[in-house]
Amino acid sequence: MSATGFDYTITRTLDAPVDKVWAAWTIADKYAAWASAEEVVLNVRPGGTWSSVMVIPGGVRVPLTGNYTEVVENKRLVMGMDVPGRDEPVLMTLDLAADGERTQITLSQTLDTAEDRDQAEQGSNFLLDGLTTYLAAA
Question: Boundaries of each Activator of Hsp90 ATPase homologue 1/2-like C-terminal domain copy (predicted)?
Answer without folding.
Answer: 15-135
